[in-house]
């Protein structure tokens, strides 16, 4: 059986205790078997990450592939590594996962790091052409949101192979504490996308006064009951996305944004304009988002009430940066057990 989501009352001490057990490669008390196979790295000077265990969790697994898509960038690689480890560790059938990484620049050290940390990972890397969005990006409230790779999720259907019909898109600043197969199996009910919806949020805040005062634009949501959803965790029917021309629909709103300032965030608002109120909502446990604080200061935040399957450090504050600065938030210690980063000897000497 895969590990179930931890309850909110679990303490940081237990997580650190688990990390010690993980490092020692003991057998999990919940019944997960850790089959650890290691081999020496042929290029140790490239490896700044420890090699992850090869997890063998289920007694019997079919051959169904679960496709996970993430972006790949040197600045977020440490987060990506932690996310991948968390997915494999909590999966009943980790061998069923196939990862599709999108990167804007070929970085040999990044690819080498993935190969050395996950020598048995089934993954592919695809080039995302930044020129597709360079003239379409508008300045937002945080520079990180304006990077071309942040918009790659809009072009998923054009980049990954045509025989891939469904993907789970995940940001790099999260960890999973449940079996992602449960999210993969969600019934989309004919929708192009599934994600947790947050209908209690003030939806009007995601767009400017100019947008709401323009009668033609304000009619965009007529016939829909739009709710905020976070694009860092999505199940996407890429076949339906292709057939419906959703990339073009999102781009059209990005063009409007270039002419009129109708929102302040990066790639999220055009998704909301096209799809809010017309997606399949899934349980909030699949995106405990906002742990990175707001987009301006990134102040510490506490966990939201309820069960948790995925922890997401959306916002300005990233756990690895706050931990390295020795000013971590309490929730950042929940990310630590999945950190494969190994500081170089040179860095330690400094």
Report on this structure.
With 350 residues, this protein is α/β, with parallel strands linked by helices. Helices cover 26% and strands 13% of the residues. The chain has twelve helices and ten strands. The strands form two sheets. Strands 1, 2, 3, 4, 6, 7, 8 and 9 form an eight-stranded mixed beta sheet that branches. Strands 5-10 form a two-stranded antiparallel ribbon. α9 packs across α10. The model is unreliable at 1-47 and 345-350 (pLDDT under 50).
Furnish the topology, listing elements before pairings:
Layout: H1 12-23, E1 66-71, H2 77-89, E2 97-103, H3 108-117, E3 123-127, H4 156-159, E4 166-170, E5 174-176, H5 181-184, E6 193-198, H6 209-213, H7 215-218, E7 228-229, E8 233-237, H8 238-244, H9 246-259, H10 268-275, E9 280-282, E10 310-312, H11 319-324, H12 345-349
Parallel strand pairs: 1-2, 1-4, 2-3, 6-9
Antiparallel strand pairs: 4-8, 5-10, 6-7, 6-8
Helix pairs in contact: 9-10
């Amino acid at each position: 059986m895969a590990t179930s989501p931890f309850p909110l009352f679990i303490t940081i001490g237990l997580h650190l205790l688990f990390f010690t057990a993980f490092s020692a490669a003991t057998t999990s008390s919940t019944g997960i078997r850790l089959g650890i196979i290691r081999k020496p790295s042929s290029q140790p000077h490239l490896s700044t990450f420890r090699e992850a265990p090869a997890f063998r969790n289920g007694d019997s697994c079919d051959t169904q592939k679960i496709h996970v898509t993430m972006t790949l960038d040197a600045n977020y690689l440490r987060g990506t590594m932690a996310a991948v480890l968390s997915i494999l560790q909590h999966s009943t059938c980790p061998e069923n996962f196939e990862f599709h990484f999108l990167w804007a620049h070929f970085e040999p050290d990044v690819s080498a790091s993935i190969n050395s940390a996950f020598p048995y990972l089934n993954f592919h890397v695809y080039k995302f052409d930044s020129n597709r969005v360079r003239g379409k990006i508008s300045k937002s409230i945080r520079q990180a949101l304006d990077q071309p790779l942040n918009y790659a999720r809009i072009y998923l259907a054009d980049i990954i192979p045509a025989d891939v019909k469904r993907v789970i898109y995940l940001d790099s600043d999260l960890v999973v504490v449940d079996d992602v197969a449960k999210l993969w199996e969600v019934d989309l009910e004919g929708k192009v996308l599934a994600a947790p919806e947050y209908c209690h949020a003030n939806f009007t805040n995601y767009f400017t006064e100019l947008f709401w005062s323009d009668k033609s634009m304000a009619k965009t949501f007529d016939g829909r009951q739009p709710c905020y959803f976070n694009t860092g965790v999505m199940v996407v029917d890429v076949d339906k996305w292709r057939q419906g021309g959703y990339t073009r629909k999102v781009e059209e709103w990005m063009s409007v944004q270039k002419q009129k300032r109708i929102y302040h965030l990066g790639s999220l608002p055009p998704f909301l304009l096209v799809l809010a109120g017309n997606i399949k909502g899934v349980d909030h446990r699949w995106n405990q988002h906002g742990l990175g604080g707001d987009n301006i200061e990134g102040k510490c935040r506490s966990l939201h009430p309820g069960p948790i399957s995925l922890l997401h450090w959306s916002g300005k504050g990233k756990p690895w940066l706050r931990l390295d600065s020795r000013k971590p938030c309490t929730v950042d210690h929940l990310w630590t057990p999945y950190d494969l980063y190994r500081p170089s000897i040179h860095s330690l000497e400094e």
